[in-house]
Amino acid sequence: MNYEGLSDGQLWMLISADDRKAFGYSFKLYSKDLFRYGRKFTEAKEVIEDVIQDVYLDLWNKRKGTQIQQSIKFYLFTAFRREIIKRLSKLRKQESMDYFSPEALLEASYLEGLIKQQGERESNQRLHSAILRLSERQREAVYLRYFADLSNQEIAKLMGISVESVYNLIFKSIKLLKGVMVNDVQYQSK
């Protein structure tokens, strides 16, 4: 069976009906996104991979009683975020997200594309500096919106904040990034 044309609802119906191939397809479809998202929290690949496996194993074990309200991707990101924070909190004995890595935000993405287009090493440094000026919450919101392609409503639920707060976080982040990049370019051309 070809799973590529199925909606998340159809795919979930097959998974909840014990279709292991559909479940494998969902792993193939979303595990790389989960791994990239995990890199925002830690560089420990083994921890990220363990959490992904645990989330998928838990989903398979609870497939009969689980109702996925929005999308499989959103469900997985929510479960993954909760589990990675819990795991890292246990490992590091801290509860905050101080370890949200700004360097990981520079992965193969739109921002990296801008850097390559400009073809300058300084551009990378300016962007990195600008990203460091964002709060952890801003970095996470930008990543979820532009790299994980979640809706503002999904981000709000995932981060436990209002949709209006998501809009504000993203707007202020983009404004800050744009301001830093434009000011640096104007400064260099003088």
Helix content: over 70%
Distance between the termini: 61 Å
Could you give the count of β-strands? Answer: 0
Radius of gyration: 18 Å
Largest sheet descriptor: none
Mean pLDDT: 79
The CATH topology of the largest domain corresponds to Arc Repressor Mutant, subunit A
Low-confidence stretches: 94-99, 106-111, 113-118
Number of helices: 9
Summarize the structure.
By secondary structure, this protein is an all-alpha fold.
Keywords:
Rna Polymerase Sigma Factor, Chain: A, mainly alpha, elongated, 190 residues, 9 helices, 2 domains, Arc Repressor Mutant, subunit A, sigma factor, 71% helix
Would you spell out the secondary-structure blueprint of this structure?
Layout: H1 8-16, H2 20-38, H3 45-61, H4 72-92, H5 110-118, H6 121-133, H7 136-147, H8 152-159, H9 163-189
Explain what you see.
- The structure is a single chain.
- The protein has 190 residues and is mainly α.
- The N and C termini lie far apart (61 Å).
- The protein contains nine helices and no strands.
- The protein folds into two domains: 8-92, RNA polymerase sigma factor, region 2, helix turn helix motif (Rna Polymerase Sigma Factor, Chain: A), CATH 1.10.1740; 103-189, Arc Repressor Mutant, subunit A (Orthogonal Bundle), CATH 1.10.10.
- The longest helix is centred in the last third of the chain and has 27 residues, at 163-189.
- Mean pLDDT is 79; it is low at 94-99, 106-111 and 113-118.
- Keywords: Sigma factor, Transcription, Transcription regulation.
- It comes from Echinicola arenosa.
- Belongs to the sigma-70 factor family. ECF subfamily.
- It holds the Pfam family Sigma70_r2.
- This is Sigma-70 family RNA polymerase sigma factor.
